[in-house]
Backbone:
């Protein structure tokens, strides 16, 4: 089976982890999903540009980051296999993305046309249910946990949670990117790691 067919099979499996979809709906979704090969450091979505698609990661690792006025980068979230990278606020408002999504590794991503996807939501109730359940988990429940942890927890506690949430990515995310995600310096992260290793 070719890589495109493998990636589409992975996409369907990921969707049906939330809600089963019919073969008819699946056929329509396949028609608006285009494979894209990303090289390491290549942007998938650029800050300042209005996106028209979101994605599904079959292989590889991506990060979403913003750049502050001082030029420092802050990593918002990481997207590994079987996740859906996208600038959803920008897509919903037809406005420029406020952050960039780029590949941390060479990646194979299915690019899904957002306008066509929205049209499918109007006609395919099964896809609509997937969309609702996905948003509930990832944009309400999990997002709130991350935001509360960032405000209330110490840097060490945030790092411990990061390791729990991204356990399968240990060694794939460079430590300076981890530090940026946690809102600390690489030196601070190094001290935290040494302290935890002694426990």
Residues:
């Amino acid at each position: 089976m070719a890589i495109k067919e493998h990636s589409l099979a992975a996409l369907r499996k990921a969707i049906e982890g939330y809600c089963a979809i019919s073969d008819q709906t699946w056929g329509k979704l396949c028609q608006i999903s285009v494979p894209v090969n990303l090289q390491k450091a290549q942007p998938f979505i650029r800050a300042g540009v209005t996106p028209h698609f979101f994605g599904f990661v079959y292989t590889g690792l991506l990060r979403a980051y913003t750049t502050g006025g001082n030029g420092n980068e802050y990593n918002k979230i990481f997207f590994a296999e079987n996740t859906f990278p996208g600038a959803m606020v920008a897509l919903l408002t037809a406005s420029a993305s406020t952050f960039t999504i780029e590949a941390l590794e060479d990646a194979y991503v299915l690019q899904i046309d957002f306008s066509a996807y929205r049209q499918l939501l109007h006609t395919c109730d099964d896809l609509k249910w997937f969309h609702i359940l996905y948003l509930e988990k990832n944009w309400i429940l999990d997002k709130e946990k991350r935001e509360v942890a960032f405000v209330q927890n110490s840097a060490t506690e945030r790092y411990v949670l990061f390791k729990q949430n991204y356990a399968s990515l240990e060694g794939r995310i460079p430590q300076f990117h981890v530090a940026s995600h946690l809102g600390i310096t690489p030196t601070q992260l190094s001290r935290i790691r040494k302290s935890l290793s002694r426990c």
